[in-house]
């Protein structure tokens, strides 16, 4: 039995499930697998939150239609939760706990046995306090990729096999991950980084992050794209357009894109002598 067959068997054993569906490649493959395993006994639910990029929501709607699964956009007012809006190092924990508690309550009320979530083997390598919230809800929230021993490379291969348009989509994280820890989450700041990344996507290939440090925007891209910023006209255009969004200083991170780069600040704080 290969890993995908094992995944299908695991999902069949769940009998009636809700897929926590963000629109990324992980949850898209999980949605495809759930529909193959359980048909109309599986539905996909997307947390419609100000922390979700518009293109992510669009991808979720598109993939759900391709798969043929019932899809619900569930409003999630994350910024109304003070612990989330405060944006400390445990933000992901509070956010996951809030969203999944609401989703679990909804699932129980509507006769579903479990929520399934798309964490995979490769997610164990970064700082992820949200996993603590999932563990606290483990009676209801299951992680089938981990049970089946599936990592990111295999997920992309499965997505390609089933012609899912997100198969080669760069990994994404919610907009809150763009703001430096301690900088409170507001709708305006989230919109700033969303618009800035949307602008850069017109010109830059690969991973893009605009990290928000108050008045300073720190652009992370793949090193092979650095040369574009050596062109004075391009550099001036990007500078002016990001300045119009409200940033005073615009910088290019010489280290390039790094997953979870804001987490470096946590390590530095923890390692400082008293």
Automatic annotation (TrEMBL):
InterPro entries: LarE (IPR005232), Ni-pincer_cofactor_biosynth (IPR052188), Rossmann-like_a/b/a_fold (IPR014729), TilS/TtcA_N (IPR011063). Residues 16-125 form the tRNA(Ile)-lysidine/2-thiocytidine synthase N-terminal domain. The active site is at residue 174. It comes from the Bacteria. GO terms for molecular function: sulfurtransferase activity. Signal peptide: none annotated. It holds the Pfam family ATP_bind_3. This is tRNA(Ile)-lysidine/2-thiocytidine synthase N-terminal domain-containing protein.
């Amino acid at each position: 039995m290969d890993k995908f067959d094992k995944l299908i068997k695991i999902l069949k054993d769940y009998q009636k499930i809700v897929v926590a569906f963000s629109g990324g490649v992980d949850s898209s493959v999980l949605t495809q697998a759930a529909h193959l395993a359980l048909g109309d006994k599986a539905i996909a639910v997307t947390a419609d939150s100000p922390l979700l990029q518009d293109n992510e929501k669009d991808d979720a709607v598109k993939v759900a239609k391709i798969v043929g699964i019932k899809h619900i956009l569930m409003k999630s007012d994350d910024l109304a939760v003070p612990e989330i809006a405060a944006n400390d190092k445990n933000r992901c924990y509070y956010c996951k706990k809030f969203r999944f508690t609401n989703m679990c309550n909804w699932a129980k009320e509507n006769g579903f046995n479990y929520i399934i979530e798309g964490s995979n083997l490769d997610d164990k390598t970064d700082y992820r306090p949200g996993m603590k919230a999932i563990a606290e809800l483990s009676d209801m929230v299951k992680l089938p990729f981990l049970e089946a021993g599936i990592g990111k490379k295999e997920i992309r291969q499965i997505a390609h096999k089933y012609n899912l348009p997100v198969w080669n989509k760069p990994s994404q994280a919610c907009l809150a991950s763009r703001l430096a820890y301690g900088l409170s989450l507001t709708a305006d700041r989230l919109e700033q980084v969303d618009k800035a990344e949307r602008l850069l996507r017109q010109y830059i290939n690969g991973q893009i992050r605009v990290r928000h440090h108050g008045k300073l925007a720190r652009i992370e891209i793949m090193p092979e794209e650095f040369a574009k910023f050596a062109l004075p006209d391009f550099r001036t255009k990007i500078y002016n357009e990001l300045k119009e969004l409200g940033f005073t200083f615009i910088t290019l991170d010489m280290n390039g894109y790094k997953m979870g780069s804001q987490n470096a600040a946590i390590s530095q704080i923890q390692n400082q002598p008293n």
